[in-house]
Design goal:
Residues 144-175 are annotated as: Disordered. This protein is an all-alpha fold. Among the domains are: 7-59; 75-139, no CATH class. 64% of the residues lie in helices and 0% in strands. It contains 8 helices and no strands. It has helices at residues 8-40, 42-52, 57-65, 75-80, 84-99, 107-122, 126-140, 155-160. α5 packs antiparallel against α6. The longest helix is centred in the first third of the chain and has 33 residues, at 8-40. It is flat, with a radius of gyration of 38 Å. The chain starts with 7 loop residues before the first helix and ends in a 15-residue tail after the last helix.
Length: 175
């Protein structure tokens, strides 16, 4: 480090030296950050490689990845990814059908029905399910009975009368 700057040339050399030193330190810090990031991500990479060797993990990840998505997705992304209700139905419907209706059926009949059910499930969206539930709730809710009120004369009509009736006779002894 120089101790004295005597002229403009020395000042420019010192500025250039400090700029070069700044670039070297920033490069060193970026490298250290990348190394730290690589070390921290090592357990995640290990778990991902372990999970990729297990069959069916990607399907479960796909179902639960819809829960973590932010609300700011574009319509294109939302249309490419089916919503979580459709994904759950795609998994659950074959299990339910195999346990109930197709219990004693052969594998060919099960395959045909399950392919047809998968096509039907692809048409189900979260909006359709919620609208169906709201219609059902509207049908089940009891009707509110409307209370009948006596009609009261408007205020203008009361002001136009000479005497206003408050329910107390004018000659009563209530003073």
């Amino acid at each position: 480090m120089k101790s004295k700057i005597n002229n403009i040339g020395d000042l420019r050399l010192e500025i250039a030296r400090l700029t070069q030193l700044k670039k070297e330190q920033e490069g060193y810090l970026v490298d250290q950050y990348q190394l730290l990031k690589h070390k921290v991500e090592a357990p995640v990479r290990f778990m991902n490689s372990l999970a990729s060797s297990i069959p069916g993990v990607d399907l479960v990840k796909g179902i639960f990845s819809a829960f973590g998505k932010s609300g700011g997705e574009s319509n294109l992304e939302a249309s490419n990814q089916s919503n979580w209700t459709a994904r759950i139905l795609q998994l659950g419907l074959p299990l339910v059908l195999n346990r109930t209706f197709l219990k004693n059926s052969g594998w060919l009949k099960k395959a045909i029905v399950l392919l047809a059910s998968e096509g039907a499930v692809s048409q189900v969206t979260q909006g359709k399910v919620s609208s169906l539930v709201s219609k059902l709730a509207k049908f089940v809710r009891p009707k509110k009975s409307k209370k009948k009120h006596k009609e009261v004369a408007p205020l203008e009509e009361l002001e136009n009368q000479d005497t206003v009736n408050f329910g107390i006779p004018p000659d009563s002894e209530t003073y």
